[in-house]
Write a structure and sequence with these properties.
The complex is a heterodimer. Chain A is α+β, with helices and mostly antiparallel strands. Chain A contains 3 helices and 7 strands, in the order βββαβααβββ. Chain A has a single domain, classed as Beta-grasp domain (Ubiquitin-like (UB roll), Roll), CATH 3.10.20. The chains are: A alpha+beta, B alpha+beta.
C-alpha cells in the first residue's frame, strides 16, 4: 500500500527499497502520540525532515501540533536526537539509515 | 525610616545563647546595594563570620532571608534563602527553597531572621506576627521533619503555620543535612541544617497576617500580569508544568549528561524505569504548586502497592531520580521514592547523600574497600538494601563507615586514601549534582566557579542544555549563535556563566524562582526584574544598576571564600572529567578541560588570572573597598604575591 506525506505530496511504494526506523517520544509528545515509540518505514534516502513529514501523515492532530507550527515549519522547540546524537534543525536534511532511532523531546531544560 | 515598599522593613535577630530576640530596622543601604535574600545574608556573613569561626561554632550566623518580590504578585514569588558558613565545605554556604515560608515571614512583618549563638537545650522559634518567642523543644528533638511540623501545628492548633525544621540527621551532625521548608521543600545543600542543629534550633514556626505594600500598585499589577501571561504563552510552559524537573530525565540521559555509576557513564540503560512517564504511571496523584506559582512543577506521589506501599511524598526532583537511581545503578523507582522519603524525613540533602553512596559503591567495585571497612555491608551497585540501610545509618551516624560518609565525599576520601580521592566527585567539598560537564561545557565551568562549591544552580546555564536556539537568541541575540545554544561548544560560555551567576544572585535576592521563568523557560530577564523591583519598592532601578548589584553580591561571596583560602587552584573538576572520555549519548568521546574557559571567565570578571581573586580595581568599581582592605591584609595575599 502506498504511503503519502501530506506535507510533501510525495508517494512511494513499498516495492522501493525502504528503511525501518524507530521513533521514541518523550514528555508532551508521548502524551500526544499515545505511545512511547513507533516503527516507521521510509524510502531509502529519506532524511530526518522526511521522517517528520511521514510521522505527521499518520499522527493525531495533537501530535502534529507539537511538531509543526501554523506556518507548516517544524517548531523550533522540538529537540531531536538521532542514535543518541543531537541533531539541530539545520541538519534535518541528513539522510537516515536503516535501524536508526530518533528521539523527540520538547526543549525542556533545568535541573 | 526605611523608605522602600515591598519590604517588611525590619529583621529579627535571635541570640540563642542569651535567649534574646531583637527587632532591627532594615538598612536602606543594604536594600540599595544587596536587595535582600541572598545578598542580605552574604553581606552579614562577610561582616560577622570570619575565617577564624568554625561553621558549627555558636558564632556562625544562620540567616533566613526573603527579598522584596517574595510574597508579591509576580510569578513564583515563594522563594527564600538560607545562608551560613557551610560545615560541609568550610566556605560560603547558601541554600534556597520554595514553598510558603518566605511569604509567611513577610506577612508576619519580617524580611529576615538572623540566628546566632547556641541554646543550652533544644528550642524552636515561634513567630506570630510581632510576637516572637524562643520555646523549649525537648519534645520535638529526635522527631522526623514531618513529625516536627505536625506536632507544631497541633500545638498551635493551626494547620496554616509554616515551618523550617531539621531532622535527626542535623541533630546528629551529618554534614549534608538540609532544612525542610513547608511543604516538603528543601533548603538542602551546604549542610545548613547541620548549622541549625549545632545551635539546638529544631524549628522556626511562622504565622503572619499582615499585608505587603507595593510602591506603585497599578504598575506593579500590570508588570506582574504581563509576566504571568508571557510565562503561560511560552512554548515550553506546558512541558515544564506537566512533569516538573523529572520531565528532563530522558533528555539529559540522551545528552549523556545523566550521571550513572558515580559518573562512570552519562546514560543509564534502565532510564525508562526512572523517567517522568515511569514516575507518573507508578505514583502520580495530583499537581501541586508553591506560593503564587503558575507553573506548578511540584507533584504529589503515592506508591499504591509493593514493599513501600503508602509511601507518599511531594517534590520528587530530577536530581533525586539520579542520585538514588542511575548514580547508584538502581532502576527501581519504588526504591528511589523510598530513599527520597527517608532523606526528607531524616533531613538530608538527597544529592550529597546519594553521591556518598555511589562513591562507596565505586570504591567497593575498585576493591579499595572491604567488608571490614564497610561495617559488613557489601556495597553492590543497585542493591536496594544497601541504599536504604546506608541512608538510615548515615542519618543516625551508626557505624564507622556510615559516619565517615556522613561527613561528605571529600572528607571520606581523605580519610580512606588509597586512591579514593579519584572517585570523590566534588568541587570544594560539594558533591556534584546530576550535571555532567563533559556533556555540557558551560556546566563544567559553572561547577568550578560556583561560590558554594560544585553547583548547577548558581550560573544555571539552561540556555545551552538542549540545543534549542530561541532562548539563546531571545536573551543574547543572533550574534551569539549557534555556539551559545550548543551544549558541547565552549565559545561564549564564560560569558553565559558569568551572566547567569550575576542574574542568579539577583533572582535569589529578590525572592523568586529559577525554575519558573528566570532560568528554566528563560522568559524573565534583567529588564523584567528591574521593572518589577522598581514598581514594588519605589527604588529607582535600571538594568545597569541591577547588574552591578548581582556582580557585587557574587564578588563579595568570592572575597569571602578568598579569605578562607580559596584560589584558582581550587577551581577545578575531579580528574575523571578531564581524563576519562564520556561513553554516553551525545557526549560520547567527550572530556572537559576548564582552564581556557576559566581564563576568559576571570578576564570577564576582572579577577586576577593567577590567584582567581577579584582585583582591587574591580572591587573598588563595585564599591567594595572594605574587601580590598580585607584581602590585602590576609596572610594568603602575601604568599600569593
Amino acid at each position: 500500500m502506498p504511503s503519502t506525506s501530506p506535507r510533501t505530496g510525495s508517494r512511494w511504494s513499498e516495492d522501493e527499497v525502504s528503511i525501518d526506523i524507530t521513533v521514541r517520544y518523550h514528555n508532551l509528545l508521548r502524551r500526544a502520540a499515545g505511545t512511547g515509540a513507533q516503527e516507521l518505514s521510509l524510502p531509502k534516502g529519506s532524511s530526518v525532515a522526511d521522517a517528520l513529514d511521514a510521522l505527521a501523515a499518520v499522527s493525531s492532530s495533537a501530535l502534529v501540533g507539537l511538531l509543526y507550527g501554523a506556518d507548516g515549519s517544524v517548531v523550533p522547540y522540538l529537540v531531536l536526537f538521532r542514535n543518541q546524537r543531537l541533531v539541530t534543525h539545520d541538519q534535518f536534511g541528513m539522510e537516515l539509515d536503516d535501524g536508526d532511532e530518533l528521539q523527540l523531546f520538547p526543549a525542556v531544560s533545568g535541573g | 525610616m526605611f523608605p522602600y515598599k515591598a519590604y517588611a522593613g525590619k529583621w529579627l535577630h535571635v541570640d540563642l545563647t542569651a535567649r534574646r530576640v531583637e527587632s532591627h530596622p532594615y538598612d536602606q543601604s543594604m536594600a540599595e546595594q544587596y536587595l535582600g535574600g541572598n545578598g542580605f545574608g552574604a553581606r552579614l556573613l562577610w561582616e560577622h563570620v570570619g575565617p577564624e569561626v568554625d561553621a558549627l561554632a555558636p558564632e556562625n550566623l544562620l540567616v533566613f532571608s526573603t527579598g522584596p518580590l517574595c510574597g508579591t504578585l509576580v510569578p513564583n514569588p515563594g522563594r527564600m534563602e538560607v545562608i551560613a558558613k557551610s560545615p560541609l565545605t568550610g566556605i560560603y554556604g547558601d541554600a534556597n527553597a520554595g514553598g510558603f515560608l518566605g511569604p509567611e515571614l513577610k506577612f508576619a512583618g519580617w524580611d529576615a531572621v538572623v540566628v546566632t549563638g547556641r541554646s543550652d537545650g533544644p528550642v524552636y522559634l515561634a513567630i506570630r506576627d510581632e510576637e516572637v518567642e524562643i520555646r523549649d523543644a525537648d519534645a520535638l528533638w529526635g522527631l522526623t521533619t514531618s513529625e516536627t511540623e505536625d506536632t507544631i501545628r497541633q500545638l498551635w492548633r493551626d494547620t496554616n503555620v509554616k515551618t523550617a525544621v531539621i531532622g535527626p540527621a542535623a541533630e546528629n551532625g551529618v554534614l549534608f543535612s538540609g532544612i525542610q521548608i513547608t511543604p516538603q521543600r528543601s533548603a538542602a545543600r551546604c549542610g545548613l541544617g547541620t548549622v541549625m542543629g549545632s545551635k539546638r534550633l529544631k524549628a522556626v514556626a511562622v504565622r503572619g497576617h499582615g499585608p505587603i505594600e507595593v510602591a506603585d500598585p497599578a504598575r506593579f499589577y500590570e508588570i506582574s500580569a504581563d509576566l504571568h501571561r508571557r510565562l503561560r504563552a511560552n512554548p515550553i510552559f506546558e512541558a515544564v508544568s506537566a512533569h516538573g524537573t523529572p520531565g528532563i530525565v530522558s533528555m539529559m540521559d540522551a545528552l549523556g549528561r545523566f550521571p550513572t555509576k558515580n559518573f562512570q557513564m552519562g546514560s543509564f540503560p534502565g532510564i525508562d524505569s526512572l523517567d517522568a512517564e515511569a514516575l507518573e504511571a507508578r505514583a502520580f496523584v495530583r499537581h501541586l504548586a508553591c506560593f503564587g506559582c503558575p507553573v506548578a512543577c511540584d507533584k504529589l506521589y503515592t506508591l499504591p502497592d509493593g514493599p513501600f506501599a503508602g509511601t507518599s511524598l511531594r517534590s520528587v526532583e530530577y536530581e533525586t531520580l539520579n542520585a538514588m537511581g542511575a548514580a547508584v545503578w538502581n532502576a527501581d523507582i519504588d526504591t528511589v521514592l523510598e530513599a527520597n522519603r527517608l532523606c526528607d524525613e531524616l533531613g538530608m540533602d538527597t544529592i550529597s547523600a546519594g553521591r556518598a553512596i555511589s562513591f562507596g559503591m565505586e570504591l567497593w567495585e575498585q576493591e579499595i574497600l572491604n567488608l571490614d571497612e564497610t561495617d559488613g555491608l557489601p556495597l553492590r551497585w543497585g542493591d536496594r538494601d544497601v541504599i536504604l540501610t546506608l541512608l538510615e545509618r548515615m542519618a543516625r551516624r551508626e557505624g564507622d563507615f556510615a559516619t565517615l560518609l556522613s561527613r561528605g565525599v571529600r572528607r571520606a576520601a581523605e580519610t580512606i586514601g588509597r586512591g579514593a580521592e579519584d572517585y570523590a566527585m566534588h568541587v570544594k567539598g560539594m558533591a556534584i549534582a546530576a550535571q555532567d560537564g563533559r556533556a555540557q561545557k558551560s556546566m563544567g565551568l559553572a561547577h568550578v566557579t560556583s561560590n558554594r562549591g560544585a553547583d548547577h544552580l548558581k550560573a544555571f546555564p539552561t540556555i545551552d542544555e538542549t540545543g534549542y536556539p530561541d532562548e539563546a537568541r531571545r536573551r543574547y541575540g543572533e550574534a551569539y549563535l549557534p555556539e551559545m545554544a550548543q551544549p558541547l561548544a565552549t565559545k561564549h560560555k564564560p560569558f553565559l556563566v558569568k551572566d547567569g551567576e550575576d542574574f542568579g544572585a539577583v533572582v535569589d535576592s529578590v525572592g523568586v524562582c529559577k525554575s519558573g521563568g528566570t532560568f528554566v523557560l528563560a522568559e524573565i530577564y534583567w529588564e523584567d526584574v528591574a521593572a518589577a523591583v522598581e514598581a514594588a519598592t519605589g527604588m529607582a532601578m535600571s538594568v545597569e544598576r541591577l547588574k552591578q548589584i548581582g556582580e557585587r553580591i557574587y564578588n563579595l561571596q568570592r572575597c569571602y571564600n578568598a579569605l578562607h583560602g580559596i584560589t584558582r587552584a581550587d577551581d577545578r573538576l575531579p580528574r575523571r572529567f578531564s581524563e576519562e572520555r564520556s561513553p554516553s549519548g551525545n557526549a560520547e568521546g567527550e572530556t572537559i578541560h576548564v582552564e581556557a574557559m576559566l581564563d576568559e571567565y576571570y578576564a570577564l570578571r576582572g579577577w586576577d588570572q593567577e590567584t582567581g581573586w577579584p582585583t582591587r580595581a574591580k572591587l573598588r568599581e563595585l564599591e567594595l573597598d572594605e574587601a580590598v582592605d580585607a584581602l590585602d591584609l590576609s596572610p594568603d595575599r602575601q604568599s600569593l604575591e
